């Protein structure tokens, strides 16, 4: 018999585990965005996608192992394909909301900077806008991974059959 706690989309255990995993991915994304801006002279907007892709690798591994108790499903290839599809969609969500909030921030607020000891300056407006984008992405990721990526929906088999034909 399947327990109702496992079938609900928003069960407490999965939500907390996913929040911790996604939080780790968000930290990786913020750090890689900062490094890409420093090392390659990218703008805030230019660093969104490359840093998102870096965090995607970390995200899949941690999500598979910890978030939805899917480490023993023996469907890793299937889950990777579905994870990538969801991640691309969520990448657009991150990008859209980060850019939109950045436009609003630039139009209505002054720029705040925080100087770290050493020589690093953090643009607080950009960071907050990035976190807003990641927050919206978190919501879409959680729901789609819970109901699609790490659940057998038959989608992968249909896609595989379509490709093989």
Shape: elongated
What average pLDDT do the residues reach? Answer: 82
Give the radius of gyration. Answer: 18 Å
Question: Helix share of residues?
Answer: over 70%
Number of strands: 2
Beginning-to-end CA distance, first to last residue? 37 Å
Q: Extract low-pLDDT stretches.
A: 1-6
User: How much strand?
Assistant: under 5%
Task: Give the spatial strand order of the biggest sheet.
Answer: 1-2
Describe the structure.
- There is one protein chain.
- The chain has 165 residues and is mostly helical.
- The chain is built from six helices and two strands; from the N terminus they run ααααββαα.
- The protein has helices at 4-7, 12-40, 44-67, 76-108, 124-149, 155-164, and strands at residues 113-115, 121-123.
- A two-stranded antiparallel sheet has the order 1-2.
- A hairpin with a 5-residue loop joins β1 (113-115) and β2 (121-123).
- α2 (12-40) runs antiparallel to α3 (44-67), α2 crosses α5 and α4 packs antiparallel against α5 (124-149).
- The radius of gyration is 18 Å and the shape is elongated.
């Amino acid at each position: 018999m399947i327990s109702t706690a496992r079938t609900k989309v928003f069960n407490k255990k999965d939500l907390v585990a996913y929040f911790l995993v996604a939080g780790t991915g968000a930290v990786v994304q913020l750090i890689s965005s900062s490094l890409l801006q420093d090392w390659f002279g990218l703008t805030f907007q230019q660093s969104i996608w490359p840093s998102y892709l870096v965090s995607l690798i970390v995200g899949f591994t941690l999500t598979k192992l910890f978030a939805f108790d899917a480490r023993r499903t023996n469907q890793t290839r299937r889950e990777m394909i579905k994870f990538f599809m969801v991640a691309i969609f969520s990448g657009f969500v991150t990008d859209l909301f980060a850019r939109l909030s950045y436009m609003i921030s630039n139009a209505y607020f002054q720029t705040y900077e925080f100087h770290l000891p050493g020589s690093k300056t953090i643009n607080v407006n950009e960071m907050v806008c990035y976190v807003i984008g990641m927050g919206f992405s978190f919501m879409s990721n959680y729901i789609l991974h819970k109901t699609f990526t790490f659940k057998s929906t038959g989608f992968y088999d249909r896609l595989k059959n379509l490709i093989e034909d």
